[in-house]
Amino acid sequence: MKLTKHVYLVGSGLQGIHLTDAYDCHVYLIDGGDELALIDTGAGMGVEQILQNIKDEGFHLDKLKYLLLTHGHADHSGGTKKLVEKTGIQVISSQLTAQYLENGDEESISLSFAKNAGFYPIDYVYEATPVDRIVKEGDIVTVGNLQLEVIETPGHSNDHLSYIMKTPESTYLFGGDLVFYEGKVATQFIPDCSVFDIGKSLIKLKDANIDCLLPGHDVFILKQGQSHINRAIDSIERLVIPSSIIY
Predict the structure, then answer these.
(1) Is residue 181 classed exposed, middle or buried when 0-12, 13-18 and 19+ CB atoms within 10 A define those classes?
(2) How many other CB atoms are there within 10 angstroms of residue 95's CB atom?
(3) Which of 171, 172, 176, 245 suits a disulfide with 165, CB 3.0-4.6 Å?
C-alpha cells in the first residue's frame, strides 16, 4: 500500500489494518531508488506475505538491502531470521537489540510475560540471528538517495530507536512504539518499559517538525504529525502520563 512518494506499508497486523499476520506490527518499505529498506519485520509468521506485497508493488527483492529495527519486541523483530534467509538483507539495530536478537533472548524482550498474558502463542519462538550494523544517536543510514537519522528513544523498551527521514516534500518519523495517533503511547507492566524514559524520549522530538508520523501500530499520520507528538509532550510537561494504546 503506497503511503507517500517514498514509503509503502507492506505489513500490518490486528493492531493496524491486518494486511499480513495478526501478530505483525506495521512494516514500512522505504524506496530510495536504487535501494530499498524495511522498518521492522513483524513477528515472523507473515514474512512470505510481506515479501509478496513488496513484489506486488512492482519492486524486485534484489533491491531490498537494509532492515532497520526499532526495537527487539517480537512483533517488531521476530521475523528477522526469516527475512535474512530469504533475501540476504542487512540488519541494522541498536546495541541492545543486537544483543537480544543474536542470543534469541526471550526474557530480555519480555516475551515470557507476553506469552503468559496471551499476547503470543505459548509455543512461539524468538529466532536468533546476527546483526550486521550497530547504530546509535546521530548515526545516518543511507538508503539509495535517502538518509535516515538515528534517534535513541528508550522507554517503551530499553533498546528502542526511532528514525527521522527528511525529503523535499516531508519529514518522517518512523517511531516504532514511541508515540501514536492523538499523542498516545504504549505503556506496559513489563520490566523493560519505563514511563519516565518515554517522557524523556518524547521531549527530544519537541522541535522535530514531523509531517508524517509512521508508528508501529494503529493509525499512521501523513500530515501534521508533530501535532500528535506535541499532545504527548504536553501531557508529560504537566507530569501526566499520556493515554496508552494498550488496554
Answers:
(1) middle
(2) 12
(3) 172
CATH code for the domain of 55: 3.60.15.10
What residues contact residue 75 under an 8 Å CB cut-off, 6+ apart? 13, 23, 24, 25, 42, 43, 216
pTM higher than the cut 0.85: yes
* Residue 243, in any domain of the structure: no
**Per the structure block, which three cell numbers stand in for 227?**
501535532
Q: pLDDT by residue (tens digit) across 171-226?
A: 999 999 999 999 999 999 999 999 999 999 999 999 999 999 999 999 999 999 99
Give the total number of structural domains in the chain: 1
Indicate the burial class of 5 (C-beta count within 10 angstroms; 0-12, 13-18, 19 or more).
exposed
- Residues 6 or more apart in contact with residue 96 via CB below 8 angstroms: 72, 158, 159
CA angle 23, 29, 34 (to 5 degrees): 155
Residue 2 in domain: no
Query: Rounded CA gap, 54 and 7, in Å?
Result: 11
Domain-embedded: residue 244: no
